Amino acid sequence: MNTVRVPSPLRDYTAGVGKINAKGTTVSEILTDIERKHQGMRFRMIDEQDRIRPHIRIFINQREVQSLGEAVAPRDEIHLICALSGG
Amino acid sequence: MTLSAAERERYSRHLLLPEIGAAGQERLKAARVLVVGAGGLGSPASLYLAAAGVGTLGIVDHDRVDLSNLQRQLLFDTTSVGAGKAVSAQARLQALNNEINVVAHAVELRAANALELLGGYDCIVDGSDRLDTRYLVNDACVLLGRPLVSAAIHRFEGQAMTYLPGQGPCYRCLFPESAAGVAPNCAEAGVLGVLPGMMGALQATEAIKLLLNIGAPLVGRLMTYDALAMEWHEFRFRRREDCAVCGVAPTITTLADSAASCAADVPARWPRVNAGELRQLLGAAGSGPQAAPTIVDVREVHEFQAGHLDGSVNIPLGDLSRRVGELPTQAPVVFVCRSGRRSQTACELSARAGVQRVADLEGGLLAWAATVDSSIKVA
Q1: What's the Cα-to-Cα distance from A20 to each of A3, A17, B318, rounded to whole Å?
Q2: By three-state DSSP, how is residue B358 classified?
Q3: Cβ of A9 and B184 within 8 Å?
Q4: CATH number of A2-82: 3.10.20.30, 3.40.50.620, 3.90.1300.10, 3.50.50.60?
Q5: Which candidate from B128, B174, B228 shows the least CB-CB separation from A18?
Q6: Which of B21, B262, B295, B329 is deepest in the core (most CB within 10 A)?
Q7: For residue B225, what is the DSSP state?
Q8: Inter-chain contact B153–A64, Cβ cutoff 8 Å?
Q9: Which of B170, B186, B246, B347 is catalytic?
């Protein structure tokens, strides 16, 4: 099980929780598990062509994810980052 | 640029630091910094930059001070409400430090004036409240070759990064395209008043480091702050070769206003009903054969839960393209949001998906509360 950090704009899907758990050996599997638990959340990050939306970044620990097929190790922390607009 | 006796006393704590000293303080005195947006971020950033002795400090903001700003925008006080932000900020900053020159730019930053405005400064601090402005400022800085310290906030979360021309990625390398129209701003989502204090102070720190050429700037590093968890995180990101503005074959070579940034001052593209007309539509449907329009509230779930129109359904704007099949294609649909911004985007999205009779509530639920039913709670 991996820890996933949820950005503020997506916390409506997690009842306001900023840290959730998800399981998977790739980023894609992690996102599928997130969707299973928090319906609609994946679509806010990934488009119909399975691309990360341009205002969303995903990091494994400190490393930026380039492809949803990237491997996730058991203790990796996944960070979902969303462009913020407020000032 | 030598320091006067008064300046030596004022900046004495800086002069004691070997990294700054008299030579560094003179560099700050000779520097020109522009703060975009005199809001939550711009307030602490500009106050610290003024106090630090940045010789020329520009403030660009075309807005006026609202009572709801005072919860976080420390440049202003109760007597400032209604005054122009740029001029009011200028007075406050000049009172804080009469040794510097504060310049008020009471204009809206647009493609037509951005290069000239930003080109007059050595370093740009972006504290704007709109994604479109963030991209405009980023693109202008890349085209001009100016350093940029960017930050943004949302509820309890902040993020910051620095762009140095030729030395690292720009904001567009991190987030290639704007999600304007989908991402709620502070007025729509709420924000902890203290949060911009943290992030704005960080921006001032970065700007001072850049001007003095000391320390390690946030180049290629995204810093995020979660006030609830009281955690900072740092993420590394690289320049994209395909970046539209700083990549190897840029497609952005001149500035342009985005359609969304123009939305505030051009007529709405989709049909609108005002609050009174919507009340009549709903009332007539209740007493006759006319079909009631489907009212779709496109605000976020927490906003909907705080208060909404009876009978309305909640489909957050970010979910709309996935759930558009839930809408009738022939019967009338009226989208509502807080102020009428997101609902216009919803009209566009759903019309493209085949929903034929779309309209939205002009002025959003704020207008409904002001003219029809003041008991509705608009988050």
Answers
A1: 6, 7, 21
A2: strand
A3: yes
A4: 3.10.20.30
A5: B228
A6: B295
A7: E
A8: no
A9: B186
Q: Write down the pLDDT at residue B265.
A: 39
Question: Is B123 assigned a catalytic role?
Answer: no
Low-confidence ranges of chain A (pLDDT < 50): none
Helix axes B42-52, B85-96, angle to 10 degrees: 30
Chain B contact set for A8 (CB, 8 A)? 154-157, 189
Q: What percent of chain B has pLDDT over 70?
A: 93
End-to-end Cα spacing for chain B: 51
Query: Coil, strand or helix: which one is B101?
Result: strand
Q: In a 3-state reduction of DSSP, which class is residue B370? A: helix
Q: What is the pLDDT of residue B349?
A: 84
Contact B114, B136 (CB under 8 A): yes
What single letter denotes the amino acid at residue B337?
C
B235-294 pLDDT, tens digit per residue, is 999 999 999 999 999 999 999 887 554 444 334 677 899 999 899 888 865 555 456 899
Structural domain that includes position B174: 31-258
Same domain, B93 and B121: yes
Mean pLDDT over the full length of chain B: 92
Kindly write down the DSSP assignment for every residue of B309-348, as one continuous string: -TT-EE--HHHHHHHGGGS-SSS-EEEE-SSSSHHHHHHH
Please compute the mean of the pLDDT values over residues B228-234 and round it to a whole number: 96
pLDDT of residue B285: 56
